[in-house]
Amino acid sequence: MKNELFSIAGKVAVITGAGGVLGGSIAQHFIQQGAKVVAIDIRQEQLDSRVAELKKYGTDVIGIIGNVLDISSLEKVAEEIVNQWGRIDILLNIAGGNMPGATLEPEQHFYDMDIACWEKVTNLNMNGTVYPSMVFGKVMAKQGKGCIINVSSMAAYSAITRVPGYSAAKTAVANFTQWLATEMALKYGDGIRVNAIAPGFFIGDQNRRVLINPDGSLTERSVKVLAKTPMKRFGDINELNGSVHFLCSEAASFITGAMLPIDGGFSAFSGV
């Protein structure tokens, strides 16, 4: 019974941004747990590489090119999935992230921000969550059952300097998660749940430059982050997998509209 309560075996899980580090890590975990994985990415080379890697752990995986900012593209993806596997049980909105042009350097001011980069980052993180939720959520509404997981950020709890676009978009994701959870439950019953995770600080390709110096030492920003992290370390990307797994399982059947911080205590600590 315990294994069944936490099991995601046999569930059809759609993962956007699967070609990236976070999406790839979660996709691998889900395959290893017996889920059927649909890896979506806009980049053909990264997607092909990811699918080949995932097939080392299980055969129930397909890769489909899809643009999270193009509803017609997503509708074609949804149709292809339903034709192949008959349903969509889980949507993991992993596509997102920041970009150098949208990150202010320490000597820059708000007025120096590249507006084009602001628009790209806010669009990708906010609409890149809303559009897939709209398309794949429609399939779940017809089924009367499904689970959506979004990715917010520590920036949704309190201001983080230098990343205005990313902060604004991830705060919007947190609010949208609550709104959609309410909407789905009121109109389609308790079978559709919508939650979010809020990762703390993990060193990846997108933030390595601001957290690690070229010589491998910690930047001033990293020192500040760790000073406010009670566990006194950065997270490992694989430490997100268990929380996402739990939220997608029947063990979380009464959890919706929640945002789970996975941050080593960062959001709980005042610094004093």
What does this protein look like?
InterPro entries: NAD(P)-bd_dom_sf, Sc_DH/Rdtase_CS, SDR_fam. With about 270 residues, the chain is of the alpha/beta class. It has two domains: about 1-200 and about 235-265, NAD(P)-binding Rossmann-like Domain (Rossmann fold), CATH 3.40.50.720; about 210-235, no CATH class. Helix content is about 45%, strand content about 15%. The chain has helices at about 1-5, 20-30, 45-55, 70-85, 115-145, 165-190, 210, 220-225, 240-250, and strands at about 10-15, 35-40, 60-65, 90-95, 145-150, 190-200, 260. The chain has a seven-stranded parallel β-sheet with strand order 3-2-1-4-5-6-7, with helices on both faces. Strand 4, helix 5 and strand 5 (about 145-150) form a beta-alpha-beta unit. The longest helix is centred in the middle third of the chain and has 29 residues, at about 115-145.
Give a short overview.
One of its GO terms (biological process) is carbohydrate metabolic process. The protein has helices spanning 2-6, 21-32, 44-54, 71-85, 115-143, 164-188, 208-211, 220-227, 241-248; strands at residues 12-16, 36-41, 61-65, 90-93, 146-151, 192-199, 259-262.
CATH class of the largest domain: Alpha Beta
Percent helix: 40-55%
In sequence order, what are the helices and strands, one letter per element? Answer: HEHEHEHEHEHEHHHE
Briefly note the CATH topology name of the largest domain: Rossmann fold
CATH H-level superfamily of the largest domain: NAD(P)-binding Rossmann-like Domain
The stretches of 5 or more residues where confidence is low (pLDDT under 50) are none
Overall pLDDT: 95
Range of strand content: 5-15%
Put simply, the count of helices is 9
* Strand-pairing-aware structural class: alpha/beta
Distance between the termini: 44 Å
Question: Rg, please?
Answer: 18 Å
> Any idea what the shape is?
globular
Assigned CATH architecture of the largest domain: 3-Layer(aba) Sandwich
The tally of structural domains comes to 2
Number of strands: 7
